[in-house]
Amino acid sequence: MEKIAGENAFICKWIQRAFIHSKLKFWRAPRLINVGTINYQYRNMRSDLESDNSDDDEREDEKSTYDRAAYQKYLRNMPAEFLKQIKDSATKDNLPPGLVNVSESSSTEVSSMRTTVTTLTFATESEEMEYLYSNENKIEIRSPFVYKSIANFIFPTVKFGADSDMKFTEPNFGKTVPANKKEQARRICEKIVVHLGRTLNMGSGYSIGVLVPFWKAYRTEIKDELVRYRANVGSQAKEMYLEGKSIVLNNIYLLVQSLTLI
Amino acid sequence: MPMGDVQKLRELCRNNSLLNIRTKENSEAFKAFVCLILQAVVHKLHFGNSRCYKPVSDFVTIPDEAFGLLILENNFEKWEKYVSDGRKSKLAKKTSTKYAPSDKSTNWAGNPKALARYNSYYMMIRDRRLLVEQQDLENDIKETFSVKYGVKGRQAGKRRFADMNRNEETVEEEMPALNVAAIDSFFR
Fold first, then answer.
1. Residues 6+ apart with CB under 8 A from B53
2. Which of B5, B7, B36 is closest, CB to CB, to A241?
3. CB neighbours of A214 closer than 8 A, spacing ≥ 6?
4. Could you give the dihedral angle defined by the CA atoms of residues A231, A233, A237 and A239, in that order, rounded to the nearest 10 degrees?
5. In 3D, which of B80, B102, B88, B76 has the Cα closest to residue B13?
6. What are the beta bridge partners of residue A100?
7. Is the dihedral of CA A91, A94, A99, A102 positive or negative?
8. CA end-to-end span of chain A
9. Mapping DSSP to helix (H, G, I), strand (E, B) and coil, where does residue A102 land?
10. What's the pTM?
């Protein structure tokens, strides 16, 4: 092999460096994926079918992290039926795969933790409302963007809270309440939900399950902002009024300007 | 400096006849009300941005206007005392507003009388806004604002200084269209 000398050597050196640099630039560390939960389910299914009694300690050992290639390999080895079941059940109720259980008697049916919660039945609407108001977990996640649109929608139209404190914090969202006797807070809540374009439930209006968590998330801010807005407007209007008056009262300006100000 | 007659607005407040503010006789009082109170209700920036381009009813909602009237009615006596005794007077500070339940509490918004009054203002404004007289008055206000403050808003960026210095006479005329195609000029 001929030795490269002079300018050519210099160019080659730089090309080599650029190549290494580009490689380094686009090189990414392999992502580690926690597949412990899926592995756990897969083992559960297998043990149910094969009727093996395995210990919990062994299961814990199997929870481990893999790199991307190992994870792909692991998925390829897993039987397609089990994989499909896990995916279906997870996407059904937007659940993380860890919550999925498979019963032994009917391998095709998949039950989840979420379904047991939704099947809670209440005799009356008031019971359901009490449950939703009292349960701290039943609250919508607050979004600043949603609040901004609410603020732009509400404060030009609503100025006063006609309800008492109790009625404002926990309005009656029952469907039996006639339209005339709906609380202001309830009307505001319904208007906001319609304004945000939330999908309507089947039947008439929104269900209690939608309205109560939504109202719980935003009620305090709405009330505080209403009070703050009133106070701000009062103080600003006062300043403007006094500024307008001071020109009239001031004797020096009174000679120059008439009372009718242009 | 507000336009309109502030004195007429004061008289209306004294006589407790603010419900007649949107009439032909009290047009000057309405102008003063727009300048003094509505500016505070519909934040100053929003008011400043749209006063030259839109009539009042386009950027001020009916609840806004009713709320402004109610604030004026509620605080009128207190503000008058401030005007007569000076801004730092203790007497004016201690005087309660019209719809306040007591001297100390300031929670006037919960008063049912205030709510009833607000509703009556709302109904009045809703009806009067449809009248042609009032629409003309609003257009007049818009024009006076546009004359006073200029239709063109403040420009941002580099070009604003260039536009400020440029006169209408010095604007260059557009070049007449050439018969020769642009590519031909390279060969001559």
1. B142, B146, B151
2. B36
3. A140, A189, A192, A193
4. 60
5. B76
6. A112
7. negative
8. 95
9. strand
10. 0.60
* Pairwise CB contact (< 8 Å): B36 & A260: no
CA angle B85, B91, B94 (to 5 degrees): 140
Measured in angstroms, the CA of A194 and the nearest CA of chain B are apart by 20
Structure tokens at A93: 């109720």
- Alpha helices (H) in A108-207, listed in sequence order: 113-118, 125-134, 144-154, 165-169, 184-196
Token pair in block for residue B132: 């042609």
Q: CB of B118 within 8 Å of any CB in chain A? A: yes
Amino acid identity of residue B98, one-letter, is K
Tokens of B28: 């000057």
3-state secondary structure of A46: helix
The amino acid at residue A174 is G
Most B CBs within 10 A among A154, A158, A160, hence the mutation to make, goes to A160
Q: Hey, of A245, A249, A256, which one would you mutate to test binding to chain B, going by the most B CBs within 10 A of its CB?
A: A245
Strands A260-261 and A65-66: unpaired
Chain B residues in contact with A242 by the CB 8 A cut-off are: 79, 82-83, 87
Task: Point out which residues pair with A65 in neighbouring strands.
Answer: A34
Q: Which of B7, B82, B115 sits opposite A160 (nearest CB)?
A: B115
- Contacts from A72-80 at CB under 8 Å and sequence distance 24+? A74/A35, A74/A39, A78/A42
Which amino acid does the sequence have at A153? F
Helix (H), strand (E) counts: chain A: 12, 5
Interface of B with A in 34-63 (CB under 8 A): 35-37, 39-41, 44, 61, 63
Cα dihedral across residues A140, A144, A146, A150: positive or negative: positive
Question: What tokens were used for A180?
Answer: 């005339």
* Chain B contact probe: residue of A167, A168, A242, A261 with most B CBs at under 10 A: A261
Here the tokens at position A89 are: 């059940």
Type of residue found at B163:
D
Q: What is the full per-residue pLDDT of chain A (262 aa) written as tens digits?
A: 455 566 677 777 777 777 666 655 555 554 444 444 455 555 555 555 555 444 444 444 444 556 667 777 777 776 676 666 666 655 554 444 444 444 444 444 444 444 444 456 777 777 788 888 888 778 888 887 888 888 888 888 888 877 777 888 888 888 888 888 888 888 888 888 888 877 666 555 677 888 888 888 888 888 888 888 888 888 888 888 887 765 444 443 333 333 333 3
3-state SS assignment for residue A34: strand
Query: What are the tokens at B160?
Result: 């604003």
